Automatic annotation (TrEMBL):
Listed name of the protein: Peptide chain release factor 3
GO BP of this protein: regulation of translational termination
Gene that encodes the chain: prfC
CDD domains per record: RF3
One Pfam family here: EF-G_D2
Tr-type G domain location: 10-278
Species name: Pusillimonas minor
Gene Ontology CC: cytosol
Length: 529
């Protein structure tokens, strides 16, 4: 075991930022980068959002609907740590993509709009975090507005998360009377000043809760906050780091991202509280992050990030060892060897050639379809990691090409978009059956139709389908499975990795078939590998 690898792993922090749309995720991301010194000018994440729109047509959809379709990765150095921040699409129709991003992180930062409290999309994401025991840090945003009572927000979080919320800071006033936040643990108040360009060095701090200056300057707002803090100290549990790491407690911070307020505390919490990369469970064995040999998993594939080059970038989360530019890597699924030279990292948002990467880092490997979602890369060992989920679609549409001469382009486009996870593509075995698209959210169909047109020059016709659910099927032995497939051919389709699925038009139909064939297992989720 190399001590260099161990010390590089120890200083990694990899987290996802999650929220309901409009809670302030983009703003906070930008401010985290600003405070870490990764960008000089506030506004560049927004600018990046804008330039992405400009450079890639399909992102128009994102702009039009004000939602974030694609997730992205940013790396920054802060104090002695390398922080990898993975953005997630907030819109529920893209939750599958988000779930997969959550498999690649060690912690999550949840942003809550203090006026709206815990919103539906946040709840779904939290369920995924909870299922994986991902530690969560909570940031309650927009205290510069008239918002909900902080005590109410805390109980809402506790109710939805099913975990204890432990405030690290507490707001003094809100909206017009917002005076700042009191740092409960350091026993000092950070006074609020509006402004976007301010950094931490010009902070106005007042030491001590009993300091008469606070009461003098903030009167009633402070008296109220003081009572609330006393209440919390008496009633709320002590912060317990082990309970946080186990996903049983969340530290809570208050602030206003747009005013750069409360951001420093969150950044420090990421370094001080969030865990470094831990071991990862593979089918074969437990993989330690500081093992000398490299391994990593493709958790996301994005096509055509750069429209000038029709490339696809596979996002790989490093699980162990050291990645070096030019090294040979084996794809476990196919046994093929690749030797990528133009692997990129995402330091301060620029795509930069990566020289080295360690567990927790995300590297981007441009390729032309060699790498699929869920693929494992190693230095030769055959490894499969579990847990990258595909969910059985709940909506189906049949797809045909308007111009039959472009059938090939349609297939290419759908294969690529399917491999990227933008949509699930099923090929029914029934002769003459049009390809079927399966989605978790309606918006996915629109994005796919738009991308087929702009990226592949295909006008696709989407038609309603008689199917309303799919189940992947397996059996104890291949013969039993094949027999089932043969006798139900009209309802069988294969997905992009040739996994067979049974398609039904109703729950009732599915139940009948399940009773008829007790030897067949019907799965609502397919784990890659
Ligand atoms: P996202 O959809 O979660 O990425 O949210 P954005 O970061 O795009 O923010 C949504 C809106 O809230 C934008 O208009 C922001 O300017 C605004 N916003 C973000 N943070 C704050 C804040 O602290 N106070 C106020 N008043 N508005 C904010």
């Amino acid at each position: 075991m190399s001590s260099l690898i161990a010390s590089e792993v120890a200083r990694r922090r990899t987290f996802a930022i999650i929220s309901h749309p409009d809670a302030g995720k983009t703003t906070l991301t930008e401010k985290l980068l600003l405070f870490a010194g990764a960008i000089q000018i506030a506004g560049s994440v927004k600018a990046r959002k804008a330039s992405r729109h400009a450079s890639s047509d399909w992102m128009e959809i994102e702009k039009q609907r004000g939602i974030s379709v694609a997730s992205s990765v940013m790396q920054m150095e802060y104090r002695d740590c390398v922080i990898n921040l993975l953005d997630t699409p907030g819109h529920q129709d893209f939750s599958e993509d988000t779930y997969r991003v959550l498999t690649a992180v060690d912690a999550a930062l949840m942003v809550i709009d203090a006026a709206n409290g815990v919103e539906p999309q946040t709840i779904r994401l939290l369920q995924v975090c909870r299922a994986r025991n991902t530690p969560i840090i909570t940031f309650i945003n927009k205290l510069d507005r008239e918002v909900q009572e902080p005590l109410n927000l805390l109980s809402e979080i506790e109710a939805h998360l099913g975990m204890d919320a432990v405030p690290f800071s507490w707001p003094v006033g809100m909206g017009r009377s917002f005076g700042g936040v009191f740092d409960i643990r350091r026993d000092r108040m950070r006074v609020f000043r509006a402004g976007q360009e301010r950094r931490s060095d010009d902070d106005d701090l007042i030491e001590g809760r009993n300091n008469p200056e606070i009461a003098q300057r903030f009167g009633d707002a402070f008296a109220k906050a003081n009572d609330e803090i006393e209440l919390i100290e008496a009633a709320a549990p002590e912060f317990d780091h082990a309970a946080f790491l186990a996903g049983k407690q969340t530290p809570v911070f208050f602030g206003s991202a747009i005013n750069n307020f409360g951001v420093q505390e969150v950044l420090d919490a990421l370094v001080d509280l969030a865990p470094p990369p831990g071991p990862r469970e593979a089918v074969q064995r437990l993989v330690q992050p500081d093992e000398p040999k490299f391994s990593g998993v493709v958790f996301k594939v994005q096509a055509n990030m750069d429209p000038a080059h029709r490339d696809r970038v596979a996002f790989v989360r490093v699980s162990s060892g050291e990645f070096n530019r030019g090294m040979r890597l084996k794809v476990s699924r196919t046994g093929k060897e690749i030797r990528p030279n133009n692997v990129v990292s995402f330091l301060s948002q620029r795509r930069e050639l990566v020289e080295q990467a360690y567990a927790g880092d995300v590297i981007g490997i441009p390729n032309h379809g060699v790498l699929h979602l869920g693929d494992v890369l190693t230095e030769g060992e055959n490894l499969q990691f579990t847990g990258l989920p595909f969910f059985a679609p709940e909506l189906f549409q049949a797809v045909e090409v308007k111009d039959p001469l472009r059938t090939k382009q349609l297939r290419t486009g759908l294969t690529q978009l399917g491999e990227e996870g933008a949509i699930q593509v099923f090929r029914p075995i029934a002769a003459g059956g049009a390809l079927l698209l399966g989605a978790v959210g309606q918006l996915q169909f629109e994005v796919v139709a738009h991308r087929l047109k702009t990226e592949y020059g295909v006008e696709a016709r989407m038609m309603s389908s008689r199917y309303s659910l799919a189940r992947w099927i397996t059996a104890g032995d291949a013969k039993t499975l094949q027999k089932f497939i043969d006798s139900n051919a009209a309802n069988i389709a294969y997905d992009v990795v040739e996994a067979p699925a049974f398609l039904a038009s109703s729950q009732a139909q599915l139940r009948v078939v399940q009773e008829l064939y007790p030897d067949i297992t019907f799965h609502t989720m397919r784990e890659h590998g």
